[in-house]
Amino acid sequence: MKDRSRKIELRLGTRASLLALQQAHWVKERVEMLNPDITITLVHIKTTGDKLDIPLFRVGGKGLFVKEIEEALIRKEVDLAVHSAKDLPAVIPDGLTLAAFPEREDPRDALVSQGGKRFGQIPPGGKIGTGSLRRKAQLLNLRPDLEVVPLRGNLDTRLKKLAAMNLDAVILAAAGLNRMDWGERVSEFFDPETMVPAIGQGALAIETREEDERTRRAVAALNHPPTRISVLAERAFLQRLEGGCQVPVAGLARISSERLFLAGLVAGVDGRRVVKGRVEGPLEQNTELGVRLAEELLGRGADEILREVYKKG
Questions:
Q1: How many domains is the chain partitioned into structurally?
Q2: Residues 80 and 215 sit within 8 Å (Cβ to Cβ)
């Protein structure tokens, strides 16, 4: 048996939340299993998003959970990072690359309610907690009779706030609940046609330095091509819209019969104006399809929504 002390050590940068650590350990175990000469050490990094106790959209939330980790990568304090793909800004820093996207978990949003009520059973005036403008806008578009309550904190904190804040329900990502084995808490899954998920929701992204061929090779086998194709299409859509957490932008790509189907949405914060669309095409045109859908929505009024939201922000 090879001496562990002679193994190559790679440092994996991660947030210290329960879900982030679960995801980091998942990547660590698989990289070590696929590369017997490598051992991975987790490095806990506190990000701006972890320090704030206000809704993230008020401070331009995209990137708040990854910025310090990316800076540590650039400074060579860590060798790789694992992120929830939905936390990544549309453009990553020069010198870094998204080296692998493991197979995507369930991308849907999930309702966790008091007493197991389904969405349609929540009474008028019911309180639903979420920290996402995307979810808020779509909730109010579906049911303007509800009160949407701002919610902050990690996944476990938000679940506790369901009772602590006397909410009727909270909306969370199904993927996070599944990864924590908390899926039994779900009262109902939203159809992604009804509640379009966040860009990259359900997917993990493994980030490395572009020049670090050894680490890129070590994680390459974790890449799931259909997930990569889909998430990059969604990210191209987001980048063309220049969207962030201040704007309710949503998108989900799926692959069927060697074709890519991409649905997207831009909404006003109050949910009154929603512009939706979809495109389809060959897999190799994934990013072009993302751009095409963004331009179609911009031409149908999304540009006015974006201007209005950014002017208020």
A1: 3
A2: yes
